[in-house]
Amino acid sequence: MKTNRRVGHLLLAGVIALSAAKAGAAPSSGRDKPGQRIALVTYAASEEQARSVRALVRSIRERGGACKSVPIFIVAPDLGIITLDWLMGDKVEILPLEMERTFLEYPLALKAFAAAQVEKKAAAVGIDTLIWLDPGVIVLKPLDALDLKNDFDAAVRPVTLANTIGIPPQTAPNDYWQPIYKETGLDYNALPAFETIADSVKIQPYFNCEVFSFNPRLGIAAEWARLLTRFLKDNDHQKSVCTTFLRKLFLHQAVLSAVIASRIKPERIKPLPLTCSYPFSQHDRLPAAKKISSLDEVSLVIFDRTWQQDRKWLERIPAGETLREWLLAIYQEYLSD
User: Fold this and answer.
1) What is the pLDDT of residues 24-59, one digit of tens each?
2) What distance in Å separates the CA atoms of residue 134 and residue 210, rounded to the nearest whole number?
3) What three-state secondary structure class fits 42?
4) What is the pTM of this model?
5) Residue 270 CB-half CA count within 13 A
6) Cβ(285)–Cβ(159) below 8 Å
7) DSSP 99
């Protein structure tokens, strides 16, 4: 098993290196082929997430358009307790997570370190666009909106809900955001305003990080991991600032948002359309103007934990017969051992 894994890694490295070498001869303003310098990254920290990632990989390969054959990196904190071997090959590389083990106890902190780990590999081989997709995400159409094409340095959308985290524009940061702004050098008076997707609240930069893309050469993920480490190791900060579950849960997202806002000019941030990151579980809470009438309208849907919690999920939003049959088949595969 380990020998096969090493062989798979070596073959993938060769494929990526060859693609990078070909792309490197061309000017940075374009590509010879769509998707030639794109890679995707996700993670799996449990058997359920491993099954979700299997569905994600299948959806990319079958419906990803120009992205259907790009390298996919799956980062896992413990390769000994989850089953990922059936994903080896097909330009899929599985990596053991490089992170302090104590951070695994902090909700979703591993995302920053998984992204930083793959960012380093992607930058080394000339990748222009690194796409992050969470487990629980399914691709339904080509991912053109996430391709930066050297015209942008990140593609993001605002968070779905402000919860208790988002703060109003032109407002001094509160105790939660002030240390983050201090570390990133942000001036709240100079920041653009955004609007949350479901509750339509005006906020300072606060981005969803279940689906986004970025230029790996900028070190965005490395800085994300560095700053998150600083806050996770600060016991006083954890005791006095991260005092609620939501403040802990969304710390990784708040830090990433500030890093993007501080390192990338507003005109280099591509607004990610809702059709490329549709929040399925929040469908009923969306304003009528933002709701889709069919899943055929979207290129990427965020199911999050819906497949775990609702066996009748396919009844929530209509889908054409072809798409419905495909979704049912991929869901049944997800349910299987």
Assistant:
1) 333 333 444 545 699 999 999 998 999 999 999 999
2) 5
3) strand
4) 0.89
5) 22
6) no
7) S
Contact between 108 and 210 (Cβ < 8 Å): no
- Closest of 304, 226, 302, 237 to residue 259, by C-alpha: 226
Euclidean distance between CA atoms 36 and 63, whole angstroms: 17
**Cα 153 to Cα 215: distance, rounded to the nearest angstrom:** 5
Compute the 3-state secondary structure of the chain and give helix, strand, coil in percent, each to the nearest 5.
45, 15, 40
Summarize pLDDT for 174-214 with one digit per residue, the tens: 999 999 999 999 999 999 999 999 999 999 999 999 999 99
Q: Which residues of 39-57 are buried (b: 16+ CB within 10 A; e: fewer)?
A: bbbbbbbeebbbbbbbbbb
To the nearest 10°, the Cα dihedral for 175, 180, 183, 187? -80
Given a cut of 90, is residue 294 above it in pLDDT? yes
Distance CA 300, CA 297 (A): 9
Q: Is 36 helix (H, G, I), strand (E, B) or coil?
A: coil
Q: Provide the H-helix boundaries in the chain.
A: 2-24, 47-63, 110-124, 178-184, 220-232, 235-240, 245-249, 251-263, 306-309, 321-335
On the CB side of 33, CA atoms within 13 Å amount to: 14
Non-local CB neighbours of 4 within 8 Å, separated by 6+ positions: 85, 88
Helices 47-63, 321-335: crossing angle, 10 deg rounding: 150
| Domains of the chain, CATH where assigned | 2-276 (3.90.550)
Side by side, the strands of the sheet bearing 137-139 are 137-139, 300-302, 278-279
d(Cα 326, Cα 321) in Å, to the nearest integer?
A: 9
Angle of the 110-124 helix axis to the 251-263 helix axis, nearest 10: 40
d(CA 9, CA 139): 25
Please state the φ and ψ torsions of residue 132, each to the nearest 5 degrees.
-100, 130
